[in-house]
Amino acid sequence: MTWYSENWKSRYPIAVNVLGGAETSGNHDVEIIFPSDWDEFWENIRSDGFDIIATDSMGTLQTFRRFTFNYTNRSLTLHLQNVTFANQNSINIVYVYFNNPDQSSDLSSAFSASSPKSGKIYLNAPSNRIVSNPSQSVGSTTPAYVFSKVSTDELYVWFRVGSLLASRIAPYNDKLDLESVDYIKIESLDSSGTNDTGRYNDANTVVIPSYIGVAVKAGNNNNDYAVCCNIKTVATGPFNQSISLRALIQIRDLLPV
């Protein structure tokens, strides 16, 4: 896999925050609140919501429930039950599928979510500070992309991950998708390789098609840090990769001499 079924024309990644747990696999319920200003979604679903489903990062259908749904008012809260996450101290990825007008049966289930983890849908596009070619150059000793900020800035660095993921030789379910991001871990390293959690907000990691946005903050004036977007991928095979994407952050407070 990863595309669940050729009958579904659209899907979107969901960033699920399971930070704070063990660095091992585990199961959790998930709650996803859908934004009302997402025209791509609301204009391409059935009025009964039967074509709205959820899968894990491999495209395996999950047990889900439309906890609240009002098509006219553009209101939807989706619950997922007992999703397996490979790392319980990371941002994990699930997918919502939609846009299947012929789905006339309801695939949802009845259950009560227990302490669900938050799944977020982000609709923003990268605007600047984009690492468009995240592969490290041969012979380089520092990250190829360098961005500057003042110590009080809180901003995003975007990593283009879509180009790193393997495609199929031939289509499956009419799609060439093979490899997908399973989970994400963020670091901010100084010259000694020491991570400082005070220089980023991993709970605000953004996942959109082909990109991951890392929220960076703080830092000491006239110091440089490497922001690291560490991804674990998953695919049929198994064909899994661990990739550390990096950019250099220069802290310059731009004060008068």
What can you see in these coordinates?
The chain is mostly beta strands and 257 residues long. The chain has two domains: 111 residues, Immunoglobulin-like (Sandwich); 121 residues, Immunoglobulin-like (Sandwich), CATH 2.60.40. 2% of the residues lie in helices and 44% in strands. It is built from one helix and 17 strands. Strands 1, 2, 3, 4, 5, 6, 7, 9, 13, 16 and 17 form an eleven-stranded mixed β-sheet that branches. The longest helix is centred in the first third of the chain and has 4 residues. The chain is globular and about 70 Å long. The N and C termini lie far apart (58 Å).
Mean pLDDT: 96
Strand % is: 35-45%
As residue ranges, the low-confidence spans are: none
State the total count of DSSP E strands: 17
Main CATH class of the largest domain: Mainly Beta
Fraction of residues in helix: under 10%
- Following the backbone from N to C, one meets helices and strands in this order, namely EEHEEEEEEEEEEEEEEE
Structural class: mainly beta
Put simply, the count of helices is 1
CATH architecture of the largest domain, by name, is Sandwich
Using only CA atoms, what is the Rg? 19 Å
The CATH topology of the largest domain is: Immunoglobulin-like
**Shape call:** globular
Biggest β-sheet description: 11 strands, mixed
- What count of structural domains? 2
Q: Report, as a whole number of angstroms, the end-to-end distance.
A: 58 Å
